[in-house]
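Retro notes
What went well: the complex prediction finally ran end to end.
Inputs used:
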Amino acid sequence: MALDEIKIGGLGASRRRVEDNRFIRGKGNYIDDIALPGMLHMEILRSPLAHARIRSIDVSAAWAIPGVRMVLTGDMLAARNLAWMPTLSYDTQAVLATDKVRFQGQEVACVVADDPYIAKDGCEAIVVDYEPLPPIVNPIQATAPGAPLIRDDKTGQDSNVVFDWEVGDREGTDRAFAEADVVSTIEMHYPRSHPSPIEACGSIADFNRATSKLTVYMTTQAPHIIRAAVALVAELPEHMIRIVSPDLGGGFGNKVPVYPGYVVSILASILLECPVKWIEDKSGNLISTGFGRDIYLKGEMALRNDGRILGVRMHTDSDHGAFFSDAQPSKFKIGLMHSAFSCYDIGAAYLTAQGVYTNKAPGGVAYRCSFRVTEAMFFQERMVQAAATDLGMDQAEFRRVNLVRDDDFPHRTPWGLLTDSGQYGKCLDLGLEAIGYEDFLRQKEEARQRGRLLGIGISTMTEPLGAGNSREYDILGIKMFDSAELKVHMTGKALLRTGAKTQGQGHETTWAQIVAHELGIPAEDVLVEEGDTDTAPFGMGTYASRSTPVAGAAVSMVSRKIRAKARKIAAYLLEVSEEDIDWELGRFSVRGAPDRGVTIQECAIAAYSNMPDGMEPGLENNAYYDPPNLTWPFACYIATVEVDPETGVWDVLRVVAVDDCGVRINPMIVEGQIMGGLTEAYAMANMQFITFDEDGNCIGSNYMDYLLPTAWETPGFELHEVVTPCPHHPIGAKGIGECATVGGPAAFVNAVIDAIGDTGVRNIDMPLLPDRVYEALTGGHDVSGAPPVTTE
Amino acid sequence: MYPSRFRYEAPSTVAEAVAMLAAADGEAKILAGGQSLIPMMKLRFAAPAMIVDINGIGGLDYHRSDPDGTYRIGALCRHADLEKSAALADAQPTIAAAAPVVADPLVRTRGTLVGSVCHADPQGDWASVMVSLEGAVVAQGPNGRRTIQVTDLIDGPFQTVLAPDEIAVEAVIPAPRGARAGGYLKLERRVGDFATVGVAVSVEMSGGSVARAGIGLTGVGPATINASEAAAALAGTALDADAVDAAAQLAAEAAQPRSDHRGSADYKRHVVATFVRRIGAQIQRSEHEAA
């Protein structure tokens, strides 16, 4: 009798997350839970100023404190050629400052001591003599004539411009604008935000002089890339480096880069020959590690009176902080705004992009997204709303006219990407029906008569998830494939390891479900391990929603290799030829005699005890998967809001989400991803940002200023699904981790702008704080949120 | 988040605590709820040499009404105790309105009203509420007890007139001269956020008119603001819309907000006026319903 796939926890089962058993019991093993014998503790002294020359650093008082074991400064690192480290974008970043500090919170010195209290005392005892320099906190200041040069350390760098790029069809776009009936323009700023995992970063470096082995426990989403980077930068032999990424308290892109704290803890362990632990505090994480966004748009759309988009021009100015440490956006095709307008059938598109240095923390990490996809989709959907308004067209109808149709796949997007599947119109219609679109428009009009302001915002988008394919995507030259290794033990239980690294996504649950789907081994019989480079197969880690598209596919493929071998064993056991074997979930049988069969578990024990002559024993294998394309999920998010005209406070009435991420492995986990993403989207739209004052002081350096929404203000979400399987993924799945974070913010902002539409206001920069909304309402003008923030 | 070294003491009587404070020569801080002190110490914004933890002192966790209507709140009465009290909701409507919006539920289980008032954070909710009620604190020092009006207690941001060897042991709200009514409105970006603007309005209604009124403002000045002229505009009126409107304007003028990332000064003034009007209307509505 065939197995019930849902009962064994296979594809489509909303299986409870197995990792939660330890998390909810407080038995997780996070970086700060790890203690090694003889371990010392490291703290970082950070710059209080945004831009200043360092005249001198006096560390003598720190050395004098009992229990201080080492004080490290930039000069000490420079003597070992480690004061600067390379970034992913072929720039350099200071590990510890030598010449200048270039942002508030920059790492200036480190103290290693017997306990973290003493290390902190040591930091306070260091005297740094700074000569303040004028700080720069936005691109206008950065490119102004006579602006102070931030990167005077780089030869040939004579301005604060990092890059100046253009992509797309300039002439074709010019022609589209020449033919346009209406040109719609909008300007806006997507504020600096932060991935802000609840667990900040940390490491424990343990260099053993006797064995020459370096073990680093480290909060990283990509342990194998770190091993390669340490081997290349520190010139240590790769086989003597072990990176262990333990349980992670969230990542969201923040734990992809290499930070100075990791580097110095490794150096300190090598110098002191004992384990050195560095645990970043929350403020350190918020003010110095990879941020997201901070980018300005000038957008133009060429429109025909019938609603068709003829062309799009975008110019972006991005603020990269003091060091250019993003993933290289010119190298990765989705690194700029290339993915904008992928869901729309538009004529021509042209993009120019300038990036600048400022006196702010470096980063520009993809916060829960692939490169700059979040900004691209936000700008796209804000531009779409403005365009529909300018045409006097209904928001939903304008989208319907321009969305790529189901029979147009594969579709070449305006900047050259290839989308392969989707039912965009169906998703939009489902969303409109769920929110009761026509009814709401009537309610809105009735409310307006009574002085109440209701609004509705729509956001529709497809985004490229699952880097990469090896033709186009690599990191440090390493192709962006991923891997899985499956060992089926003789009792039919199994151990699965992948090159990905879960940080809340639930890999320990869902990978086992893929194995269950492919082999019929119950998910509860499959143990999943990740994160230890000495045991896991080489992989590129977890970010950019790539786990299911790439590592998940590898899990399928390795399971199929196991099944192929098991089939040979089954043929041997059943004394028929392989061609006469049928497969149903968990069992092989003789074609035409279904009662004669063996289970996958019987094959497993035979692999160790009764294999055919000439067959290698065992039932283990691995798979490296290089996806043929990105996956393209689609989403339609619709929010309704009410704005209080007296205070500018806005409340969310309803949120409807329609997501098409192809086949869902664990629907409960998918829904959790969407709800979490919508919560982040709401936060960015409503309350959350990092800004700076004129002096370069970071506002948003702790959870009193950088706000995470609580259950109290987070709205309820109504989720719906459409399933269009990915045509090239082994089980038809697409990425989902970031869709709601990427597509969600525009739905909220569009709703508020819709509510105050009578004022003619086109834009209020996020977050739509009550005072900004009130200013727009009463002043009838757009409201910028770009730094510096005025304080008086 | 590692505080500097400090000495920890846990006295069991107020007298013992006062003696410890006196011996510490101004280098000690009192730990009640700890919801402001401990974060400040972890951030090393505060580095007291000694912590005098008063949580072991019995008999300070009360809130109660004297027979004459005077209300007393002990130094260890938690925000949550006030939030959950049905008796208080009737006797002290302004306190009852503020209690559920102070900080967040976690902080409310530990933090104390008296501690919050003595912390003198211009963004603290309780000082405004106490100002609107003409409240006072009772301080105990080596020479006995004295009562200090909250308007006199706070003499700057995070500054009070308490001597280094004095402990505020209770908050006192005088008996009303009529039926109490009042409210507290707070604009915050998120639960647990400090107030962008907070407004406390307390009135005592006698014979259909306002026998006494008080208005306190949170987060719109270097310290808690006592909008006494605005309150005076309500006294003697029937709390009609015109009177409330006049008070709202005066309250906005009394505010001394600064522009920052929470909003412009003008906006904050506007919200002060709006909140005074809204509380006025709330009181009006409940008076009508009662009648």
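What we learned: Chain A has four domains: 31-133+204-239+251-280, 137-194+291-359, 421-465+631-792, 468-625.
What to try next: split runs per interface for comparison.
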